[in-house]
Each structure stands twice: as C-alpha cells, then as structure tokens.
Request: fold
Amino acid sequence: MVSGRTLDAAPLDRGAHRRDGISMTTLASGEVRGATIEDKPDKIVDPAPLSDRLPPAAGPFWTVTAVVSVAVLLAVNVTVSRTAVAPRTPWDEIVPLQMARELAGQGPVSQMSGAGYFPGWAILLTPIWWFTQDPAAVYTASIGVVIALAMVTVLPLMQIARLLGLPTAQAVTAAALTLSVPARTVNADYVLAENLLALLVACSALAAFRLWQRPSPLTLFLFILAVTAAYLTHARALAVVLAAAVWLLLFALRDWRVTVGGAALLVGGYWLVKLLVAEITIPILLSGFGQGELLGDKLENLAPGPFLRVAFAQAWGQFAGSFGVTALGLVVLAFFVWRELRTLRVGPYGFMAGLLFVASAVSVIAWSNAGPQERFDAQVYTRYIDPFAVLAMLLGVVALLRTVRRPLLLAAVGLVLADTAVVLFKVAPWANTWGTMYGPANSAAILAWAPLRPSDPFPHPLIPAPGNANELWFWASLCLVSGVLVMLAVRTRPRVLAILMLISFAVLSLFANPSQSRDFPAPFTEALESAEDTAGAPEGSLSVDLDMECHGPALTHHQVTNWSGFWLSPREVETIDPRRGESYDSDIVIACGDWPRGQEMGAEAIAGSGYYTYKVWVLPGELQDELEEAGLLVE
Reply:
C-alpha cells in the first residue's frame, strides 16, 4: 500500500479544473475525490485522458435524466413485446423452452430439430414450468424475464460507467442509453438468450475491472464465474472464454498467481459447460449438437473478398444502429488499449478489446459464406455481435457525457466516413437488398430502415441513391454520418447530448419495432381439443405421435417437429420413425397431409387440422369411430 501519495492528473488531463486548491482526479471507484490515493497506480482505472474536463457535476438535471432514461428503456421494451404472444422461430426460442420444460420435470419432451443451444438460458426459464404448462402462458412469462434482464443489465453497465469517471446519476443514464438502441430492444419481441448473454458479458467486463483493481481469490472467482455463465448461455460466448484465457495469461506480467489460479478455474468451468451440454442439450436433439461444425465448415471455405465485405457491412450496421456512438466507443477502447500496451500491462480494456475482436471475427466468418440464397440479413447480420457491442456502445456514451477530447471524436468521425464509403460503393451495390431477413432480430441494428427495402430484385451493381431500389443504404448512412457530425458540433454540451441520445434512440427503437407473424399450430390444438371433448377426456390428456418418416416441403418437417412438441403441451408428444421399427403408441398421429402409410393403415384426418402441409390423423379404433360419428373427420 502506498498512502499519502498524490496522482498528478495534469500530464494526462490538460486543463483539469481544481477545486479548493486540490488537484482532482477520477479514481477507480468512479467518485471524484482529492488527489490522495491509497493504492498502487497500476491498480487505478484511469479515465483521465478521455476528457479535458472533470465529469459533469451531479444535480437535479442528471437525477431526472437517469430516472427518465430508465423509464423510457422499460417503456420501449414493453411496447416492443406487446405482439410477442408465441414464438417467432421454432429453433432459437422453442428449443430452450423445451429444455427448460425437461429440466422442470414436466417431460419427457420430444426430440427436436436444430443444431442445438447451450442450456444456460433454459436453466433460468425452468421455474416457469413449475407454475404452468400452458405454452402461451409460459411464453408470456418468458418475455417478462427477457425484459427484466434488459433492465437488470443497467446495473453492471452503470458500475463500469462509474469506473470510467461518471457520477452515479450520469452512470445510470449512460447504461440506460446504451440499452435503448434497436440492437437491444428488438429482443423484447423474442424469447432468445441474447439479453441474458448481454448481461453476462457486461458482468464479465465489470468483473475484469474489479480483478484488475484488487486481485484476490474472490475477485478472480467472480470473474471466472461470469465468464463461465456467459459460455453456458450460448456457444458464441466462447469468445468470452478465449478472451479471458489470453488475458489471464498476460496477467502473469503483474501477478502470476492470478494466471495459475485463473487458468485452473477457467478450464474447470469450460469442461463443466461441456458436461452440462452433453447431459441437457444433446439428448433432446434429433441429430446432435452441430453449431461448432457449422462454424468449422465456414472457416474452411473462407475467402478474403467476402470476409472483408461482410466485415465492413457488419461494422456499418453497428455504427448505423447507434448513430455512430459505437464507433466512438471503439476509438476510445483502442485508445485505452494502446495506453495499456505502452505499460506492458494489459488491463480490463485489453480484455474487452479481445472479447469484441473474437466475437466479431466469429460473426464475420459465419456470414462470409452464406451460400447462394438471396438473403439480405447475410450482408448485415448484427445479431451475433449485438450482445458484445454493448461494451463499445457504453464507452461511446460515457465518452460523450465526459466531454470527450476532440481528437478522439474526430477519429470516430473518420472511422465512420471510411467505413460508410466502402459500404456504399463496394458492398451495397452488390447486396441482395430485396432478400429475406429470416427474422427481425438478425439485423436488429438497422431494422428501422427495413421498410425501405424493395420487394423485387434489381440488377447489380446499383449504387445507393435517394429514390432508387437500393436507397436503404443511403438513408441509413445519411443518418449515421449526421449523427457523428452532431456529436462533433455539440461535443462540449453533455446535457444536450444526453437529451438527443435519449430521444433519438427511443425513436429509432420504436421505428424498429418488428411486426411479425406468429405461426403457431392453432389447427393442431383445435383438432386435439375437439378430439378430447368428443372422447370425454380431460383437456391436454391425449398423447400424440409425430411421424418422422414422411417429410413436407422445404423446412416444414423441422418446423412442425419443434412446434408440436412445445405448443401441444401439456400433452406428451413422441417422435416415431417406422423405418427404425418403431410403432405408433397413440391413436393420434401428426403426419404429412397425404401420409401414404397412414392411409394404408386406415387412418383418417381430422377436418380443418392442416398446418404447414401436415394434418392430425386418427388411427382406426374407438376414438376414430367417435370422431367419425361426430362428423369431425375428413370425408
């Protein structure tokens, strides 16, 4: 401990104000105190070079702004969630929901189609199934959890903002603004793992700061716990594990004990996640876990040209979806990493940079070879980076509220202009802008401009311009460039910037509010309820077999497989494949609309039960006779 030692901020903070004749600096606690410090300088998270001014003083304005920004964040999330009455995707949402059902002891659940998802999100949703087995109620409650996670994420982001020099009210404002952009709010329309992942990414970054401040067994354990929890939530969070591994290795330059202990804990956490995936995820999948194999195939076929185009486009998507604030955050992060490298001690900024780099690389690699499909979202697929980009976004917001130095802001303007120029003239002219987005969350960051997409293909190349079929890119870029120029114009007025961000982010998120169909299998439910009513059986009591032999066109077989298992709850649904010698145990079978094997067996379809080219069939027996007598079968 070094007591009574002063840290002279003048060399780092030119023109810093002085109060009561005492040099002021921002300490790691996020509070402005006198210059006396009680710890070694290398344990201080020093944000002084970020600004040539002290942080804005606390006062009624910032208290009100903090309350309003949190209220707006909640209101936008609730507004976006109002149409979320059923899953939008039968894979990313239903698979975790079914895993949660199995963990809650409400199974067994039927095996499902898909590459698989890590069980962290399912574990969090498990208690919902203890209170209800109604799928619509489960989904609504899960949406509530999604929104709650968005609000809770304010806490770790606020703590990081305090470490960067903001008083509490401004720090809360910065955290809420960070989470108010479409890349975050669109998730309120889904039961996806994204909000939990964003929370744990923020917790991992905060834990890295705490570990760097005061290395101890407790801070090390909390850091590894956050990293492991993030990885348990999603396979993409391997980026957090890799960044943590490299950072802990570099920590040896400061304290080798942290490196040794951290490595042991990290390896243990990694294998614990693998064990849980093997025990929870893999048994409920029809074809085993395959996300890693998909990325490996992409890596083998990687080409420089597509890689660079997707890299520029995905960066542009992040920049446009925040009016350039994320670009400023990247510049600030690069600045702090450079300062760390000059001291040969890579601190928490290095960890954050490594995390963002690996996550971005995974996303770009995954979409550099999207195949021949005419997909628009393949060009600007922001979803994979969104949960990690909150860190860069936060740095950008904090920098603006701290009155960021002009050179840093000019660098951000240059970054935006360069990236935008490449996108407008080298990427957008060849983009399939008319193509599908396969769900709004895939390109949530730029969803506000999605209505500008043309409905019909156009010949390539077509440089974006007002009024032409490719104008989406032009108008989004105009908003982006205007955003960074406004930041530059009012750089020294943090209150104005806070109000502008609050309004513009909320408006952008409301424009991005997706309106999407929820094609749940209502015909199946109605048919089964009619059968149960006719047979005098309690609602939800009839078991259902799902035929795996005949396949409908395109992806209908996979969609019906996953939808049936979840939406017909609490009924037990079992997959049956006669080609493997399996026999039907139930009188009711969901199968193809023409089902040759069923017709040979004398099965008849329930009238009005068609869904995705599939129908609800009834095998010969007492139930079929009752339904036929009631006139419920197809004549």
Q: What stands out?
A: The chain has three domains: 5-44, 60-511, 522-629. The two ends are 88 Å apart (CA to CA). The longest helix spans residues 256-281. The longest strand covers residues 588-592.
